[in-house]
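Hi support team,

I'm opening this ticket because the web form for multi-chain structure prediction keeps timing out on my end. I have pasted the exact lines I submitted so you can reproduce it. The total is 334 residues across three entries, so I didn't expect it to be a heavy job. Is there a limit I'm missing, or should I split the entries? Thanks in advance, R.K.
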Amino acid sequence: MSRGHGFNPAQARRSLSCTAWRPPGLPELPEIEHLRRTLEPILVGATIRRVRLLRRDIAVVVGHSDEPVRGRHLLAGMTIAEIRRHGKHLAIIADCGRALCVHLGMTGQLRILPAHQRTSPHNHVHCIWRLEAGGTMHRLIFRDPRRFGGLAAIDSTECLVMSYWANLGKDALTITADQLAMQLGRSRRCIKAALLDQGVLAGVGNIYADEALFRAGIHPASIAASLSRSQVARLTSAIHTTLSEAIRAGGSTIRDYVDASGDAGSFASRHRVYGRAAQPCVKCTKPLASASIAQRTSVFCEHCQTHTAQHSQTPKQPTNPVIHNLPTPTSSRP
DNA sequence: CTTATGACCTGATAGC
DNA sequence: TGCTATCAGGTCATAA
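Hello R.K., no limit was hit. The queue was backed up. Here is the completed structure from your submission:
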């Protein structure tokens, strides 16, 4: 279980009157890493001149949840030293060590706009930073229509890593097969639920869980602990390659994920199972199955992905799909 | 301790 | 055309 990794925006929204923020699209690890890379060249070294928090309930002060969010919590007046990522979390770290952790939830966006460009107040923009980088003024905005995401202000980098991120699992991009095997070892959950648990490994969401399981040839309803050593090794490798390819492509962009400059990623057109229910499997051409596993829509190939031990309470209704000879074999989103 | 489920939130889409 | 119902999913509180 991912039991509270320190701060959670949704929780913060419920437990106190802070701000909620919205992510853009379906940001998983590749989207966040791509975002980190596009923000880094502009933000690092930049000084924040002014911060406007338009919606208080999207932000929280970690460790002092009753404290109102002030400018310094949002790095006002500070110079940015580093942009760090762990799993789906992004942290803006000031040179004094203070950190602002950004989580995009499902529809959150972090974008850099020219200083003069106006943002509509009805555009779900919840926080605006005016910053100066090399003599040029920029605006960094955080918008999040659904407000599943949020901002977490943290006193120090040490607190960020040792406390706030402490309950997150190893980063999915670098976790080893041994480490993953250790996490799955005693778990009676289905493998898909385990992969989605940020305390097991950090960064995998519904899209890449399905993609990685397909590449590894493992049925999503298999019990985690029943996977063989070689299966775990294959799965680890599949996670790494799937995420790496997606980072290279700039992320998935199913709906509204865009990077810091507003560009959409292109990995969606490479999805092999996600969003392709009833379409032909790229390996065996049989129609892909779709079922709700671990409370999430899951798409997989019943022929290519083998069961080890099946999860008992898996409500499988593998919608025996009809093959539609649609012209678009892949579902990319404009 | 573990695991499962519902709630949160709003935009896009399907259906009438 | 316009309305309503449904779906999307990351993470939590709560329940079992």
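A quick check on our side: The two ends of chain A are 35 Å apart (CA to CA). Let us know if the file doesn't open in your viewer.
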